Amino acid sequence: MKQPDVLALTLDEAIVHCNETGWDVKIIYTKAPGDQSQGRPRVLRFLQTSPGRGVLTVARE
User: Of the residues 21, 50, 56, 61, which has the maximum number of CB atoms within 10 A of its CB?
Assistant: First the structure.
Protein backbone atom coordinates (compact mmCIF):
# COMPACT_ATOMS: atom_id res chain seq x y z
CA MET A 1 0.00 0.00 0.00
CA LYS A 2 1.46 3.35 -1.06
CA GLN A 3 1.80 6.00 1.64
CA PRO A 4 -0.67 8.87 1.27
CA ASP A 5 0.67 12.18 -0.03
CA VAL A 6 -0.66 14.46 2.70
CA LEU A 7 2.30 16.73 3.47
CA ALA A 8 1.16 20.36 4.02
CA LEU A 9 -2.54 19.51 3.71
CA THR A 10 -4.92 20.76 6.38
CA LEU A 11 -5.70 18.12 8.96
CA ASP A 12 -9.28 17.76 7.70
CA GLU A 13 -8.10 17.25 4.11
CA ALA A 14 -5.46 14.74 5.21
CA ILE A 15 -7.93 12.69 7.26
CA VAL A 16 -10.37 12.50 4.34
CA HIS A 17 -7.58 11.46 1.97
CA CYS A 18 -6.30 8.80 4.38
CA ASN A 19 -9.79 7.39 4.94
CA GLU A 20 -10.48 7.28 1.19
CA THR A 21 -7.25 5.39 0.54
CA GLY A 22 -7.71 2.91 3.40
CA TRP A 23 -5.23 4.28 5.93
CA ASP A 24 -5.94 4.27 9.68
CA VAL A 25 -4.13 7.25 11.22
CA LYS A 26 -3.43 8.69 14.64
CA ILE A 27 -2.69 12.39 15.13
CA ILE A 28 0.13 13.99 17.11
CA TYR A 29 0.27 17.77 17.59
CA THR A 30 3.56 19.63 17.91
CA LYS A 31 4.59 23.27 18.30
CA ALA A 32 7.66 25.39 18.92
CA PRO A 33 8.31 26.39 22.55
CA GLY A 34 6.23 29.45 23.40
CA ASP A 35 4.25 29.22 20.16
CA GLN A 36 0.68 30.49 20.53
CA SER A 37 -0.51 29.76 16.97
CA GLN A 38 -4.26 29.31 16.69
CA GLY A 39 -4.51 28.77 12.93
CA ARG A 40 -5.59 25.70 11.01
CA PRO A 41 -3.68 22.49 11.72
CA ARG A 42 -1.46 21.32 8.83
CA VAL A 43 0.37 18.05 8.33
CA LEU A 44 4.14 18.21 8.82
CA ARG A 45 4.90 14.50 8.54
CA PHE A 46 3.37 11.11 7.85
CA LEU A 47 5.04 8.12 9.50
CA GLN A 48 3.93 4.60 8.61
CA THR A 49 3.77 2.45 11.75
CA SER A 50 2.49 -0.78 10.19
CA PRO A 51 0.76 -1.83 6.96
CA GLY A 52 -2.24 0.47 6.49
CA ARG A 53 -1.54 2.47 9.65
CA GLY A 54 0.35 5.66 10.33
CA VAL A 55 0.80 8.79 12.40
CA LEU A 56 0.20 12.34 11.21
CA THR A 57 2.36 14.98 12.91
CA VAL A 58 0.48 18.28 12.83
CA ALA A 59 1.13 21.91 13.79
CA ARG A 60 -1.10 24.97 13.65
CA GLU A 61 -0.39 27.70 11.08
Answer: 56
pTM of the model: 0.92
Cβ density class 15-36: b for 16+ within 10 Å, e for less: bebbeeeebebeeeeeeeeeee
Integer Cα distance of 38 and 50 in angstroms:
32
Measured on CA atoms in the order 41, 46, 21, 50, is the torsion positive or negative? Answer: negative
In this structure, what DSSP letter does residue 10 have?
B
The residues pairing with 50 across neighbouring beta strands, listed in sequence order, are: 53
Q: Is residue 4 included in any domain, yes or no?
A: no
Domain that holds residue 52: 11-60
Query: 13-49 pLDDT, tens per residue?
Result: 999 999 999 999 999 999 999 988 899 999 999 999 9
